[in-house]
Amino acid sequence: MSGIRIPVEGIDGSGTAHATSLLAPNPSPMTLDGTNTWVIGRAETVLVVDPGPDDDAHLRRVADHLAERRVVAVLLTHGHHDHSGGARTFAEMVNAPVRALDPSHRLGGEGLADGDVIDLDGLEVRVVGTPGHSFDSLCFWLPEDRAMLTGDTILGRGTTVIAPDGDLADYLRSLDQLRAGAEILEAEALLPGHGPVLPDPVGVLDGYIAHRRLRLDQIRQAIRDGARDARQIVEIVYAEVDPALWPAAEMSVAAQLDYLKSL
């Protein structure tokens, strides 16, 4: 069972029986409260997922937190800087390799791919390929906790953008895959890269899928109403969204337009 922990004071320290979040101090409209650096393990050896940005204080805090434990590897959900920027520095601090799907973010040679299984003193971590937000996005399934680390594929609040290195068709397939898996595996928690732990995986994924379908319908209608480019579509479809987030919305609209053209 997951044994979800949600501290009263906030996200830092939240997680499940074998996964704990250490919150990086990089809050913003895009990163929400900051990046969740996840520590996975139950004994003397651990994995660290997404060390976060290259912030010396945060990286040292994570290393100090694990002073009595050995970091077997650093794993990346994807290569965006707010997740991976500090990976090399942290890996050198703790003398561990960095494993990622994208070879450009690896340190030590060994990568990660869909279907890989990491055995950590009997605690399994299963790699799930979930391209879409970015081309190299991965999720990590912890069977013993019935919990999925989702990086930016699923956020603790709101919905994710489709980055320029992502693809909406891939993302929709990834959401469908995660939704099916959450039901079959009886998932109890989603552990996102930003924001709080989510205790209703099936409900959250249903909401994400419905939201994406609604946005596509809204974009189709905006085009019928005369919108001629991504910016005009954003002004119509995302009118209720903080204008500070409109540049990110334009990225998603561009991905949605590419998707609609491909149908």
Automatic annotation (TrEMBL):
Listed Pfam families: Lactamase_B (PF00753), WHD_BLACT (PF17778)
Domain Metallo-beta-lactamase: 34-194
InterPro entries given in the database record: LACTB2_WH (IPR041516), Metallo-B-lactamas (IPR001279), RibonucZ/Hydroxyglut_hydro (IPR036866), Sec-metab_biosynth-thioest (IPR050662), WH-like_DNA-bd_sf (IPR036388)
Protein name (Swiss-Prot/TrEMBL): MBL fold metallo-hydrolase
Species, as recorded: Microtetraspora glauca
Lineage summary: Bacteria, Bacillati, Actinomycetota, Actinomycetes, Streptosporangiales
